[in-house]
Every structure is written in C-alpha cells, then in structure tokens.
Amino acid sequence: MGVGFIRDKLEIKFLILYIAARVVEPLPLEGMQELTMCDDGIDYFEFTECLNDLVRTEHLRLTEQQTYCITPKGMKNSAICEPSLPYSIRVRTDKNVAAYNQKLLRKSQVRSRVEPRPNGTYTVELSLSDDLDTVMRLQLMVATEEMAQNLSDRFQKSPEEIYSRLLAALYQSED
Asked: How buried is 14 (Cβ within 10 angstroms: 0-12 exposed, 13-18 middle, 19+ buried)?
C-alpha cells in the first residue's frame, strides 16, 4: 500500500460517506471505487470492507439495481465527520465528484438505443435533452445491427454536432 493522507478504515468510511452525500444519483460499485480510490493510502480490500460495513450499519443502502445510496443516518454522520477528512482529500474528491456528476448528467441528456424489428431490420432511437425538455428525438430504420450500433455510438460522441447538422440540412435554402 502506498503512502497517503488517509491512514485508517475510519477515514475511508468518512470518505465514502462524503462521496455518497455529494453524488447526484446512487453509485454502482465501480463508481464508488473510482471516486474513493483517490489516495495512495487506500487499498481495494480495505475499501470493500469499509463499504460493506457502512451498508451493514445502515449508513448506506444497497439498492435493487446494485447501487449504493446514502441514508439519512449516513448523511447526518457525513456532515459531522466531514472536517475529519484531510483538506487536500476533500478538494480532490470534490473535483472528482463534480466530474462524475457531469458525466451522469450527460448520460441522462444524451440517449440512444437499438431495437430489433420483426422484419430483421433495426430501429435506432436517438434523443437529446437539456435541463428543461427534450430537444430532439429521432428514430431511424437501418438494415443491420452493426449499422444501428455504429449510429448509436456516433450520436453518443457528438450529439450537439449532429443536431446542428440536422437543423442546417433541414433549413438549407432551396436554390
């Protein structure tokens, strides 16, 4: 184990609660691990032991979707214990949580899915939303699953560009 600011299991628990209190939605194990392993003083085995202890003591709840969410008890204790975390860890964690929350927001605003049709073709549904409403919803029929997945992946990478190009194509003057 490396040398870090986090020194014991109690501090790891404080950090996990600190994270859980700041994310915009419950975290899967991978997300919780990614955000918690921000210090060289934390190893995976201690992390999982602390996470399980927090569930057992009802500071966190494991949902049916296998995500971790903070309970009122956990929220209360997180607020009390927050000053015990080293300042540099809080700053680093705040930055990481903000980036993670931004990814979650992006994921909720940009959606795509592929559905097979009875005739052997595929429907690709693409949707782009902002904070208030759906900006665009588009359904396309394509011949193969590979084409459908390709369109879905391209849309996920640059939905705003596709939206702008679609508008430009639709508003193109009729010369």
From this structure: buried
